[in-house]
């Protein structure tokens, strides 16, 4: 049976069964909250002095919040009912001062706490980003980009929000609760008992509501995530949507998701809207009870009118921190869980270079593979690369051939030390690759990929990405050599044209030319090229060929070749099959062997 009835034609969202299930699952909880809190504390503790001031401010504001109502009671009993108007003005003056001072302390505590939390978050965020930069490619292989983005944004934001407000709120709520109870007990245990009778009702009412709202808010978040995912996909895949005339189907799908969001949003707001109303109702009941019981007690002389006023004020103050604590509980837990996920990434092992002896080594470019075997995942049945051995002299060009999935890209990735080999050795200039610091190796290696990645910055900066300290002249020179200068000149702002992310407004061929210019600026000893397969017009293709030939001159180059022309110009040809190097040698040697390369050659001529 559905739990929520159906006004306004909206379908019920939460059922009793859902709530039962949800109770079992519970919310996003950290597994080691003590460890996480200790680490957050270490970050916050860097600003210990400011933190102590904030805590003193919280103590001061909680005390002032207690003092205000107490003074009102005293003013009524000692001045108004006794008609002592002479000292009244002074007392009112002090009372005003107390409330002004209360506001000042509250403002200052949140001002300084926001400072502390922003500084803490800044360090956490920078630490996380810094760490991400040092993680091996294999780490990124295993994770979805969206998930990592969520760590960088949502989880960090969650921790930030909690530090901003929850820290002060939890501390001041506890102080207010304890302080109010103590003072109330001192004034009248009986009225205190009457005031506290409201607490269990409040607890059960809040539990009833939050059980439903937390489920609904989670549903709403999921619906928002689904909808955003779909919007992102539809916008980035707009060409495909249009090409396959899928607009109406996308619209239908969108309507379903959007409708789901409308319904969950409706119920989430309806239920959360109950909270202040129920609290208000219970407050008023408490107020009435205290006023009625207090009136009777006052009639018999057990309490004064001033004390009743103090009690009614305290009764009101009492419910707020209770409510705050209940609200903060889940927020704090989910922030700790978020922080735990952030710390889990920070604890991931980075790429460490054991040896730094060859830090300034200048590569010549002799490359040797000695019986190399490599596997991306240890649980896979057979290795991706098996017993591969070859030698390429400095300055030579080696063409890699083979069907899709044969392992050509993997050879390149191993050469850039994106992954470590499982067996065998890779030597560069006779130095084992793991004795060359990655930075030294990669700064002298350039990749030119089929679909080069361009950043959302100017053309000039995109080229300079290969060597950050390159002068404008060097960039210009590289662009000219890469045959890119002509088209760059025609862009709206020439070299200062800002490209959209991934160079959406320039052609595939032009992207290639830019990436060749980028490689030329870097002046690498080792070149790793993946020739474009996409059809590029003959003029651009010739330009690319010419630029590549210039780029390859005097450098050791590995080319995943898709054109016969490229293969024929190579000094060595490697044929890969199922992760093995099945043929290797010069053109002539392989033709003579009449093996796979020979067959490929004949097939391409047909
Ligand atoms: N990051 C990775 N994690 C796990 N397996 C991978 C990874 N990258 C590639 N592989 C697998 O390794 C094998 C070799 O892939 P590789 O990309 O080296 O082939 P390729 O010869 O370059 O193919 P293509 O010409 O299609 O690019 C494939 O079976 C592929 O699925």
TrEMBL record:
Domain of life the protein comes from: Bacteria
Keywords: ATP-binding, Cell membrane, Membrane, Nucleotide-binding, Transmembrane, Transmembrane helix, Transport
Keyword field contains Transmembrane: yes
Gene Ontology CC: plasma membrane
Domain ABC transporter residues, every copy: 367-603
Xref: InterPro entries: AAA+_ATPase, ABC1_TM_dom, ABC1_TM_sf, ABC_transporter-like_ATP-bd, ABC_transporter-like_CS, P-loop_NTPase, Type_1_exporter
Localisation per UniProt entry: Cell membrane
GO molecular function terms noted in the UniProt entry: ABC-type oligopeptide transporter activity; ATP binding; ATP hydrolysis activity
Record membrane topology: Multi-pass membrane protein
Residue ranges crossing the lipid bilayer per the database entry: 49-76, 88-108, 167-187, 193-210, 281-303
PANTHER family: ATP-BINDING CASSETTE SUB-FAMILY B MEMBER 10, MITOCHONDRIAL, ATP-DEPENDENT PERMEASE MDL1, MITOCHONDRIAL
Designated name of the protein: ABC transporter ATP-binding protein
Source species of the chain: Psychrobacillus vulpis
